[in-house]
Design the sequence.
């Protein structure tokens, strides 16, 4: 492994400052892209160029370590694209499974990437990886022959970096000297991306100022914060603060009241005294002599103890004061999740900071607005059903009187139009899982009003129309338009699928917290009620295309629909609704008692 020995035997590039300035800036920009694809050639980028034709050339350990760290970061995908066969590439690189391998000049993909017939080279393989990883930017490093077509494919936020051979012309935007420099670049990218992904922004050590009197050491930050004070004794303030509050404890700072930024920081000539200058304020940090510090030990210990108690008290007070805000945030989050899941009637009452109250009111307004939109949608569906289905039924009844082929043609056209209208209404209806608005109606009043309309058609056809309604209201958790659509669908089926003159009966029953709407006729009925209900389409009986409307509306409030043969000898449809304001079990009962008239 001569490449590894050469890397460790030479002084090497030990810091990011050894990389070119343009490379460091590009690395910093790439580290902040949402989805990053890092791709490298094997020979020339991860491992030194195989000038002595050795078949067992290994990658630099530093490069492998950096690729592993990058591959473990969220939103980051790493790949190696090489001219070597995939089998040899996997055996030589010994990279973890998180790093994708593409061999044979980009035509052989590793096990979790199916071979793509469009990939006939490294450039095409890189595009396949970009598409499958949804990368927003690509970094490609190459140092061998055949890398220029890959660099030509890069554009926009992508970056191409040529490794080695500084005199050879290249279309790559950037260069680094050799494979150790390429490994240093990957390490820098891993550090920058980890810092961006996890929000860590540590102060660089070169921006710290050091104070020491050979007994104590302190670090002063660029904003005059005393970051670290360490004594060799086990009861030192630094250890005491670490035990009490962790890394953030035992730190204090001095800053101007106007919150201005520091203007500069420097050492006094020939001393370890640090001066930090703000506008109209200067902070001087120094360490007293060891003897003076030891004499002040008891006072310092008391001061540290007092500071620790103050810190604990402040933490407890802050925790107590933040309880209302935390509760308000939890309530806001739960309400937002409920609205997103379809519970549009969810509302939140926020008590706490003014900004959170405003946010809670905004969430409530959004929920109300969406409910209003859904209510308007339901009104539109009901309006369409009343405006289109009812006149079509009247037109069909009139067409029944027309003789000959011309009458048959008109009847077929009306039937086709009815099917199209039913399909439009079915598709336009809102889903049952979003019918959560707390809207109610009196089913008795709706049936009384709509049967006044249908009774007129019954008289024209010589039908006996029987309506049996209770004396008290029967409220169900559906708006009046939904209830009217259910009744119109059932009664319209009777007029469409039973002979003129056949009697019709409509009954509403209230019992044990349930409201049942019964529509029955003296027509032919249906041979297979279960199939008709499951199908939701006309099977020759009285349950035609409108049954989907009935089933969707009833099941939206945990009701049931039953098809059977009725007392008039034909079809009977029982649509059972949960009575509004009455608690019900999660599962409806399997049987119930119905009151019959007559």
Sequence:
């Amino acid at each position: 492994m001569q490449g590894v020995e050469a890397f460790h035997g030479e002084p090497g590039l030990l810091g990011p400052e050894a990389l070119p300035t343009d490379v460091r800036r590009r690395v910093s920009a790439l580290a902040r892209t949402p989805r990053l694809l890092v791709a490298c050639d094997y020979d020339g980028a991860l491992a030194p160029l195989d000038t002595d034709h050795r078949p067992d050339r290994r990658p630099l350990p530093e490069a492998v370590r950096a690729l592993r760290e990058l591959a473990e970061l969220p939103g980051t995908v790493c790949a190696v694209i090489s001219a070597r066969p995939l089998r040899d590439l996997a055996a030589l690189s010994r990279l973890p499974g998180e790093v994708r391998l593409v061999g044979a000049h980009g035509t052989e993909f590793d096990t979790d990437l199916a071979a793509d017939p469009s990939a006939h080279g490294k450039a095409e393989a890189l595009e396949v990886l970009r598409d499958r990883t949804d990368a927003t930017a690509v970094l490609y490093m190459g140092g061998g022959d055949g890398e220029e077509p890959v660099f030509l494919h890069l554009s926009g936020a992508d970056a191409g970096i040529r490794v080695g051979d500084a005199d050879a012309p290249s279309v790559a935007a950037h260069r680094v000297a050799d494979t150790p420099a390429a490994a240093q670049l990957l390490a820098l990218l891993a550090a920058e991306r980890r810092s961006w992904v996890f929000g860590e922004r540590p102060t660089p050590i070169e921006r710290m100022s050091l104070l020491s009197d050979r007994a104590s050491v302190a670090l002063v930050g660029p904003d005059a914060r005393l970051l670290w004070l360490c004594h060799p004794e086990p009861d030192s303030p630094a250890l005491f603060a670490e035990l009490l509050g962790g890394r953030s404890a035992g730190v204090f700072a001095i800053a101007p009241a106007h919150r201005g930024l520091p203007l500069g920081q420097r050492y006094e000539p020939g001393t370890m005294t640090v001066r930090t200058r703000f506008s109209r304020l200067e902070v001087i940090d120094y360490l007293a002599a060891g003897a003076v510090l030891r004499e002040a030990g008891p006072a310092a210990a008391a001061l540290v103890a007092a500071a620790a108690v103050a810190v604990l008290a402040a933490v407890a007070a802050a925790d107590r004061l933040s309880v209302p805000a935390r509760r308000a945030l939890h309530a806001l989050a739960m309400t937002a999740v409920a609205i997103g899941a379809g519970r549009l009637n969810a509302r939140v009452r926020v008590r706490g900071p003014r900004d959170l109250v405003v946010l809670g009111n905004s969430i409530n307004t959004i929920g109300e607005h969406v409910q209003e939109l859904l209510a308007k949608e339901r009104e539109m569906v009901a309006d369409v059903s009343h405006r289109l289905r009812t006149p079509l039924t009247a037109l069909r009844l009139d067409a029944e009187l027309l003789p000959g082929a011309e009458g048959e043609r008109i009847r077929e056209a009306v039937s086709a139009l009815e099917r199209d209208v039913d399909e439009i209404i079915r598709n336009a209806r809102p889903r049952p899982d979003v019918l959560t608005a707390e809207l109610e109606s009196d089913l008795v009043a709706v049936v009384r009003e709509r049967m006044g309309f249908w009774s007129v058609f019954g008289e024209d056809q010589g039908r006996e129309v029987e309506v049996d309604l209770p004396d008290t209201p029967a409220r169900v958790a559906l708006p009046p338009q939904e209830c009217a659509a259910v009744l119109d669908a059932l009664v319209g089926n009777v007029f469409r699928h039973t002979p003129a003159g056949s009697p019709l009966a409509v009954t509403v029953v209230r019992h044990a917290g349930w409201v049942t709407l019964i529509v029955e006729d003296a027509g032919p009925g249906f041979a297979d009620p279960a199939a008709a209900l499951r199908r939701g389409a006309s099977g020759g009986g009285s349950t035609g295309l409108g049954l989907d409307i009935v089933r969707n509306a009833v099941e939206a409030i945990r009701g049931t629909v039953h098809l059977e043969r009725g007392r008039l000898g034909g079809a009977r449809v029982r649509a059972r609704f949960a009575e509004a304001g009455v608690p019900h079990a999660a599962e409806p009962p399997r049987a119930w008692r119905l009151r019959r008239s007559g």
